[in-house]
Amino acid sequence: MNLKAGQVFWYEVDYPKTGETEIRPVAIVEIIDGLPIFVVFVALTHSKIKNFEGKYDKWKIPLFKGRDCGLGESSFAKVNCVAQAEASSFNSSDYIGQLNPIDLKNVKKKLMEFLDSGDGFW
Predict the structure, then answer these.
(1) What is the pTM for the complete model shown?
(2) 35-42 and 21-32 as β-strands: parallel, antiparallel, unpaired?
(3) What gap in Å lies between CA 10 and CA 70, rounded to an integer?
(4) Residue 109 region by backbone torsions, left for phi larger than 0, else alpha for psi between -120 and 50, else beta
């Protein structure tokens, strides 16, 4: 399968701090040396960002066109939930859609802010 930045898939995510796993929508943000980097979405949430500097909301960014790619109207990307995965772990049957270029650009920009911040992942 030929992966591209902006593609959204259902994917089994492992949470490192709790050891829990769940199927979540994820977006491919970039592909480096053949390894996709993805951001985990808080998909279909209706909770607004309440505290832009708060622990849970600080690294959340709205997807303005999330509905266009198969996500809910109030979808957000949490850019502090980042991981790499082998391209072979993505299946075409789990494909949801393609992020709008504006949403992908905003996610990448927020991701760079997070990486430069020194804050911890997950």
Answers:
(1) 0.87
(2) antiparallel
(3) 11
(4) alpha
Query: Are 9 and 96 within 8 A, CB to CB?
Result: yes
Kindly report the average pLDDT of the chain as a whole number.
85
74 Cβ contact partners less than 8 Å away, ≥ 6 residues apart: 44, 45, 46, 47, 48, 62, 66
Q: Is 2.30.30.110 the CATH classification of the domain at 7-117?
A: yes
Give the residue carrying structure tokens 């992908």: 104
Helix (H, G, I), strand (E, B) or coil at 27: strand
Higher pLDDT, 57 or 98: 98
The domain segmentation of the chain, as residue ranges, is 7-117
So what's the pLDDT on residue 47? 60
Average pLDDT over every residue of 49-76 = 85
The phi, psi pair for 104, rounded to 5°, reads -60, -45
Note the Cα 17 to chain centre separation in Å.
18
